[in-house]
Amino acid sequence: MEKLSNRRHRTSNIHIPIIMTDSTSISDINVLSDIVSRSPPNGISVLVVGSGIGGLTAARECLRVGCSVRAFERRPHSVLTGGSFTIGSSALRSLHNYPRLQREVKQLGCQPGLMVYKLDGSVISGPLQLTDVLSSSVDRDLASNTLRLSRPKLYCAMLEHLERMGVHVEYGREVVDYFENTPAGRAGVIFSDGSRHDADIVIAADGVNGHSWKLVLGREMRAQPSGDAIFRTDFPVRHAITNPIVAEKFIGNKQADGQPMVHIYMGDIQLLAGVYKDTVEWGLVHKDDGRAQESWDRHHLLERVFELVEKHPDLCEEAKALISTAPADSIVDWRIMWRDPQPQWTSASGQVVQLGDAAHTFHPSSGNGATQAMEDAVSLVTCLSIAGKDDLAWATRVHNLLR
Ligand SMILES: Cc1cc2nc3c(=O)[nH]c(=O)nc-3n(C[C@H](O)[C@H](O)[C@H](O)COP(=O)(O)OP(=O)(O)OC[C@H]3O[C@@H](n4cnc5c(N)ncnc54)[C@H](O)[C@@H]3O)c2cc1C
Question: Active-site residue among 232, 298, 335, 397?
């Protein structure tokens, strides 16, 4: 039975209820500890720029190994937009240090099966498990622990955990530049209001459009349009449940173990659709007509989606039905860009280090961005912790080399 937590994450105008769907009650979760053990202070000060999944993971890991941490986010409040993404077991494994968060994440996630169709709805393949589509036995083991998670819900769980451990993200702090003072072994950030902060290490986890490129690469990072864009949305299942086609094909269509099914329709356009617990999600890859943006902000774009669908009469009725249930103003049109992989993620002195999307971006179809951002954070902070305060610059370079 679903239990609605009385914990709600408050932003300026958004509440995200955290819904637990297995037999564990909120009081069971509350008795779990936030952290298995925390090292004594190691004298290392860290600034984290960006409170995405990468930045929050880095801040949490820094706390665990004894660093002092401040985290800055340019947005005025917590960023609760976005749909679902996949997080691999390599990243989820690091949560064993945080029993309560680990339990919450497990409960928030699901392990959908896959059905693959032509646009007309005829089956190409399925039902498949992730383990069926990965080749080696090692990959199968990893896939069996991979979770599909709502980004906003994961984000809330991670943010609340960090707050319980004493770090509060400082919102409305846009970093416009980075600097380093090599002789002093310090690095820092300059905010849009001209103020500055410095520390032993600055972690630039500010995503695809951050400003750390200038210091790290000595130039702006140029992005190339891929020619594709993706309409994405997710919304409460109550919007879709009254549509009988959607109710039968998508909401009621589960695997034998009750886990949901993801439906992928392949053709000139590609649709990915799923119903996870209380949320419907779909994404529609299409040719970029120049109007898409690299922004997760939602807009009134359903009319444009309908225009696209009309140009594809072969798209089956069930897929059209699901698309039509989205609230009109809930659509993101994400422009898919390529950025060449950069071998160097550290500044000349090694005191500023990029992490997650700031260091390397992934095509959305790879389902890998959040996993790699979390892995980066664990790898980086482990290196900082092993090196200690006297060898931090080497630590960031070794991390870069290992990754
Ligand atoms: C709002 C949002 C929604 C998303 N939704 C999805 C989704 O539905 N599906 C999916 O696959 N991926 C989504 N992503 C992308 C995915 O979360 C990332 O690719 C992945 O998790 C890597 O995370 P990251 O921490 O490196 O970067 P991001 O998640 O992009 O986080 C970067 C953070 O840095 C902040 N920031 C940027 N510039 C500055 C600055 N100058 N000063 C201070 N702060 C700054 C940003 O506001 C953001 O909070 C979303 C990202 C965001 C930000």
Answer: 232
